[in-house]
Amino acid sequence: MTASARMLMLAVGVAGALAGAVDAPRSDGAQGITAPNPSYSWAATVIAPTTARRAPRTSGRRIVNLQPVAPLGRGAQVLLVRRTYRDRGGRLWVSLQLPIRPNGRQGWVPADTLRFRKNPIRVAINQKSRTLTVFRNNRRLYRLDVAVGARSTPTPVGRFAVAEFIRTHTPDSFIGPIVFPLTGYSRVLNEYAGGNGRVAVHGTSAPRLIGTRASHGCIRLRNRDVIRLSRLLRPGTPVVINSP
Predict the structure, then answer these.
(1) Which of the two residues, 242 and 192, has the higher pLDDT score?
(2) Residues 6+ away with beta carbon under 8 Å from 183
(3) Model confidence at 118: pLDDT above 70
(4) CA-CA distance, 207 to 54, in Å (whole number)?
(5) Predicted local confidence at residue 193, as pLDDT
(6) What would the pLDDT profile of 50-107 be if each residue is shown by its tens digit?
(7) Contact between residue 215 and residue 147 where contact means Cβ atoms under 8 Å apart
């Protein structure tokens, strides 16, 4: 099942569910910020309204306005840092993975509108083996079985990031107790169940389908596994999905 902000808020009623669910990132300053590597990445919390632009300058064309509050769970807006650039005036710009179409879209934001946290966790999803693997400091912690998109509604392939962490408070629902919306969208569905085709990692009320190609593009886990995942996964965590 695909998930979008509108779908989740209407169908699951999770508005405000994120409050207190995400650890408040400590300010590490903007020194030493790097692109993601196998051992760690950087997550950026938006601390003031800002504009993501196509180029690292104030005259760069606007892509999207970013707010400190994430649109779905109403928690902090936390995005993955992809790269940095310091302009001639000495101002640091940060390229963020944006939770918008098309998949993989990045935008430049001034670093002084962000707060940074170093993150040792990353996730790799293998559609061939139907598994999700969690790494910390480039060491495998554990591997979980998943369901992926059906052939007609495939899970998108590429480099994404966790966009939000939402507790549904309805563990027996179709999408389980926890939903991690990603920055990716279905490539074949522009709309699903009133939403806009957003893809997520979430639990399921149909664990018998784990290990198959059964979803509309989302990654489904057994509820006990998504709860286990929630102890480590936070917004801004890199997620790589390979081809089936």
Answers:
(1) 242
(2) 79, 80, 97, 98, 99, 100, 103, 160, 161, 162, 163
(3) yes
(4) 42
(5) 57
(6) 999 999 999 999 999 999 999 988 899 999 999 999 999 999 999 999 999 999 999 9
(7) yes
Instruction: Give pTM, 2 decimals.
Output: 0.87
User: In this model, does residue 9 exceed pLDDT 80?
Assistant: no
Whole-number percent of the chain with pLDDT over 90: 79
Q: Which amino acid is located at 46 in the chain?
A: V
Strands laid side by side in the 178-185 sheet = 166-167, 178-185, 198-202, 219-220
Mean pLDDT across 155-164 = 97
> Which amino acid is located at 109 in the chain?
V
Q: What is the pLDDT of residue 46?
A: 98
Q: What is the 3-state secondary structure (H, E, C) of 202-244?
A: ECCCCHHHCCCEEECCCEECCHHHHHHHHCCCCCCCEEEECCC
DSSP secondary structure of the chain = ----HHHHHHHT--TTTTTTTS-------STT-----SS-EEEEEE-S-EEEESSSSTTSPEEEEE-SB-TTT-SB-EEEEEEEEE-TTS-EEEEEE-SSSSTT-EEEEEGGGEEEEEE-EEEEEETTTTEEEEEETTEEEEEEE-BEE-TTSPPP-EEEEB---EE-S-TTSTT-SEEEEEEEE-SS-S-BTTB--EEEEE--S-GGGTTSEEESSPEE--HHHHHHHHTT--TT-EEEE---
The domains located in the chain, with CATH, are 5-15+120-241 (2.40.440.10), 41-119 (2.30.30.40)
